[in-house]
Design brief:
This protein is mostly helical. 58% of the residues lie in helices and 8% in strands. The chain is built from five helices and two strands. Strands 1-2 form a two-stranded antiparallel sheet.
C-alpha cells in the first residue's frame, strides 16, 4: 500500500519548507499582536444586558434626584382664592402689578 501511495504522490513536491521552519521558532511581537487581534471572543448577552440596564437605571435615579428643588420662604403664609392656593407674597405682587 505504501508503494502505491508513493507512486501516486511522486509528482507532488513540498516547496514551502522554509515557511514551515520559520513558523516553528519563537513568534515575533508582530505575530503575537496579529494573533491577539484575530482572536475570537464570546460575550454572553444576558449578563451584559443586565449590567447595562442596571447602569441606566442607577444613572436615571441619580440624575432625577438632583432636579427637585425646594424654595424656602420667610413668610410661609398661603391664601386660598377660587379653590387655588397661592403664596401670600406672590399674590400681593401680582395684585400690585395689575393695579398699577
Amino acid at each position: 500500500m505504501k508503494k502505491q501511495l508513493d507512486k501516486e504522490l511522486e509528482h507532488l513536491r513540498f516547496t514551502k519548507q522554509r515557511n514551515v521552519m520559520d513558523r516553528m521558532g519563537k513568534p515575533t511581537w508582530k505575530q503575537r499582536l496579529n494573533s491577539l487581534w484575530h482572536k475570537e471572543i464570546e460575550i454572553p448577552l444576558l449578563p451584559v444586558a443586565a449590567f447595562g440596564m442596571m447602569i441606566v437605571l442607577l444613572s436615571g435615579l441619580t440624575f432625577a434626584g438632583n432636579e427637585i428643588s425646594y424654595t424656602t420662604r420667610e413668610n410661609n403664609e398661603t391664601i386660598k382664592i377660587g379653590g387655588n392656593v397661592y403664596w401670600k407674597e406672590d399674590f400681593e405682587k401680582l395684585v400690585k402689578k395689575y393695579d398699577n
